[in-house]
Design brief:
globular; 34% helix; 3-stranded mixed beta sheet; 23 strands; alpha/beta; 507 residues; binds ligand T4K
Length: 507
Amino acid sequence: MLPSSIRLAQVFCPSYTADKRSVKGIPANRLISRNGTILLGLLSPEPPSPNLSRCLTGPADAWQPVRRADRRPDERSGRRVPLIGTHGQAPTIENRFPHGGPWDMAFRSKGSLSDLAVFGGPPVFSERLHVGRPNIGDRGRLLTRMNELLDRRWLTNNGPFVQEFEQRIAELSGVKHCVATCNATAALEVAVRALDLRGEVIVPAFTFIATAHALRWQGLTPVFCDIDPRTHNIDPSEVMRHVTPRTTGILGVHLWGRPCEVDALTDIARTRGLALLFDAAHAFQCSYKGRMAGQFGHAEVFSFHATKCVNSGEGGAIVTNDDELARRARLMINFGFEAFDRVTSVGINAKMSEMSAAMGLTSLESLHEFVGAAHRNYTAYECELADLPGIRMLAYDPSERSNYHYVILEIDEAVAQIGRDEVHQVLWAENVLARRYFYPGCHRQQPYASDERVRQQRLPVTDAVAARVLCLPNGTAVGPEEVAAICRVIRFVAAKASEVQARLRGA
Ligand code: T4K
């Protein structure tokens, strides 16, 4: 049964986007009734039903619980949404939750350290909550497309869905060419070959391993560069230190969808005669100085992997305004075939399939909804975690377009009195599978870590940031209730940081 001291209510917050911190003067998400009942607010920009309206001002008993058992799947997204407020009929504890359910755990209060799952208490979530749960989109549209491609008997090799997908990506990014690929790693490899990079390429060490591997797999030497602690992106002032006669290019990464210092990198590349490529795996629909990612450097690469904001299951794309580069890349992803029976250069198979493009096109149709959900969650996290000592949430520039896909905490142990790894441990025990992206940095992974030159290198900012970062669940698979519950755990841990740390360390 739901503990009688806990109630969950939908809170109508008309000023949700402008002022997320209070509802009728009460701090949202921390509504405590006079008799001590804990009320977890479900922030909602939707007007409430008459029942819910009364909830805000009425006695605690009038508040309504909402749990997974009481939710219906949304037809478009497949995500479960609360019945309350959408069907108008207010459930009661007795008639709706006679047997309890997964949300019994979800909103259990953590009163003492022993209530934490890591110390033997029940986990907040009975099901695992992942970082990277895919956004799904309209299943009906996807299935229609699947039927179409089956009817057409055209499954891959530059089919109509791939062409349409490429056109949409190019339009949305404001770029001339898009070459869709089977994933972003292959796209990076094709791009560095199409750019004819050789020798050394300067790349940040704080990135997903694919960025470095794509270079190495092509026989290039990734030269790791430190990052700017504020942006987590490659530090242009550090780049210059790594330029040697063997350097042919710079591969910047728009980490978390926050674009690199493009102007500074463009200047360096131009003055030193280097190619400039961007790994924009995270940055689809993000802007830099008002221009969309995809338009910078000689080329950029997007990822449409399942875990990305827009996904095609597996997928990627090379985008560029360079006609010749696009032509070369297009040949390379299809074995170098220029026409039937005519191969003019070495190539591989890095084509996107029609099934992936069908998923990608369907995903694009829900782009607005996906970014909206990520932004809503991001704002709720920001609201709840804003004032915790030593715990900082990475901000997105409100004057730019962002997809808000990554919710990144930086935990400074010296101030927070608890380390990132300990918070990570606590969250995993609660079934919140937060990720330590991109710990420990590419330079500390093989084969790079064994390279004498890399071993000699010092990347102090990368090491410090890699030890502090924690990525929290976001996307359409996560709703305000989950965000509220995750934040409650983090706030509890932050409030009792030194005690939690001591107990974890067996002191
Ligand atoms: N450059 C950068 C900067 C990147 O971040 C990436 C990929 C690339 C290049 C290369 O792009 P691709 O070649 O992949 O297109 C995941 C993704 O696999 C990877 O694409 C992504 N970056 C990276 C940041 O995250 P892992 O090792 O964390 O994957 P995994 O299997 O642990 O999945 C992440 C979470 O998502 C899991 O907790 C489970 C959940 N999940 C995953 C899949 C695939 C689901 O719930 N459903 C699913 O279908 O790398």
